[in-house]
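TL;DR need structure tokens for one chain.
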Amino acid sequence: MSAQLIFDLVPLGSLIRYSDETSRPPERFRKKLTSWENRNSVGRLIRKQVERHIGNTMLPACITLHEGDYGSNGIVTIRVHRTFSADSDLKFTVAERPAIGSVRVLDRPGDGAELVYLASHRADAEEWLTRHGYPDAVLDEVTADAVAADSVEGRAAA
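>> reply
TL;DR here they are.
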């Protein structure tokens, strides 16, 4: 799939793999391997931003993936997000969609919302919200109807 199709069809909370379709270099080539890993990985879809204009500059639609959190003793010190333009030359595939009954915690209502937590159920989402400061948070439950609509409309994972 292209990044544009991910933007158009895939729900927030899905695990997305991306690749430049080149083979992985051997471990002994550290620089080549690091470069390859920057263009071949997986992350959770947390944001979709529509095309926007800033002055005379047009910024294309984009998707943002959360690749991981790093820290120690339960304290996150680095959060890794990767943003891709809708016209990216990489290939994307859906590795996993959010499970039915899971609840997406979005930082705010509207189209620009960002997924901040994917809970296994509503009680988990509400408990998580009590420990984190998102006053405008929105809870969005993944329903069987939404999953069925994806397959009826031809949105099944490719």
